[in-house]
Amino acid sequence: MSNESPITTLIDYLLEQWMNTFNRKEESIQAGNIVAISLLDLHKEKKINIDTGRDNLRYLYSKGCFRATNAKRLFNLQRLAAVDDTEELCLAEGALPNGVMLKQEEFDTLRIFEVKLELQGKNQKSIIKPVALENIARHMGDFDSGLGLVKFLKDCDVPVYLINYPNTKWRMLDDLFRVLASSTEEEHHQLLLTILEEFCHPLRYGGDRGKALEMQDFIADQICYDDYYFGYLKGGISKVEAHDPDTGIILAEIETDRETRNKENYA
């Protein structure tokens, strides 16, 4: 028996439905981009009471998890979730609907995932300062196209429902970084660090090691304020705890490695 709450079960159902549509589109260009939300199916498959499902859908709507812009689809979604005065209006006309069809792009799946973390108590203060993450996102956004960045994130094993695209390039990256850095889950922190590390690989710059090292230096100068550092000669990002008795030695070694690397590559 699952210990998941009804609302996290609803979130999993929404992401599952969204992914099913995404996968169909990947398999066939003729597949549509419509995602069905059915409270009847939720009740049948997940044992969630229809009224509970409606209440939880209303909550997700209030948290900015949907961005329906088409007037008809927006009204249908509001009816399904019994939002604001729509409930009174619909009850006057008859029973509230139990299903609705939305386009894929009308789901903010990253926000839906973020709300799930919040509900599970798995969010915290960002492990890296938000302004540093924004600086990195803006800088990275200058080095590739939107689709190129999407492919890069997929290659880093970022789930597609966490990639908020189409979007401004830097904002797509910043939104993802924010969610990963504010999670309590170590796997999310590691995914963030992997993205930053992989973006510094020379092959991203046509094999130009100098450009790759410039990116590495830029990122290093942003994340060091939260005690994260590149191991320059060995590669990879790690955290150096301020209370570690060997901190001074470690930081001196990192700086020496950086100087050595610069002499080798810029001589």
Throw out a few tags for this protein.
4 strands; two-stranded antiparallel ribbon; mainly alpha; two-stranded antiparallel sheet; 12 helices; single chain
Structure explained in plain terms:
With 267 residues, this protein is mostly helical. The protein folds into 2 domains: 6-107, no CATH class; 130-266. Helix content is 58%, strand content 6%. The strands form 2 sheets. It has a two-stranded antiparallel sheet. Strands 3-4 form a two-stranded antiparallel sheet. A hairpin with a 6-residue loop joins strand 3 and strand 4 (237-239). The protein is elongated. The mean pLDDT is 87.
Secondary-structure map with pairings?
Blueprint: H1 6-27, E1 34-38, H2 39-46, H3 50-62, H4 71-81, H5 86-93, E2 99-103, H6 109-119, H7 130-141, H8 146-155, H9 169-181, H10 186-198, H11 209-223, E3 228-230, E4 237-239, H12 247-266
Antiparallel strand pairs: 1-2, 3-4
Helix pairs in contact: 1-6, 7-9, 7-11, 9-10
Average pLDDT metric: 87
User: How do the SSEs run, as a string of H and E?
Assistant: HEHHHHEHHHHHHEEH
Side-by-side strand order of the widest sheet: 1-2
Q: Which segments are poorly predicted (pLDDT under 50) over 5 or more consecutive residues?
A: none
- Give the strand content: 5-15%
Radius of gyration: 23 Å
Counted up, domains total 2
* Number of strand segments: 4
- Helix vs. strand class: mainly alpha
Largest sheet: 2 strands, antiparallel
Q: What distance lies between the first and last C-alpha atoms, to the nearest angstrom?
A: 64 Å
